[in-house]
Amino acid sequence: MDLADQSVAVVGSGFGGLSTACYLADAGADVTVLEKNEQLGGRASRLEADGFEFDMGPSWYLMPDVFERFFGHFDREPTDYYGLQQLDPHYRIFFKDGDEVDIRPDMAHNRAVFESYEEGAGDALDDYLRRSETNYGVGMSKFVYTDRSRFRDYVSWDVAKNARGLSLLGTMQDHVERFFDHPKLQQIMQYTLVFLGGSPHNTPALYNLMSHVDFNLGVHYPEGGLGGVVDGIAELGAELGVEYRTDHEVTAITGHESDFLVHAGERTMPADLVVSDADYAHTEQELLPPEHRAYDADYWDSRTYAPSAFLLYLGVEGDVEPLAHHTLVLPTDWDQHFRQIFEEGEWPDDPAYYLCVPSETDDGVAPEGHSNLFVLVPVAPGLDDGPERRERYRERILDDVAANTGVELRDRIVFEEQFAVSEFADRYNSKRGTALGLAHTLRQTGPMRPARRSPAVDGLYFTGSYTTPGIGVPMCLISGQHTADAMIEDYQE
Question: Which of 64, 103, 332, 456 has a 20 to 30 Å separation from 232 between CA atoms?
Answer without folding.
Answer: 103
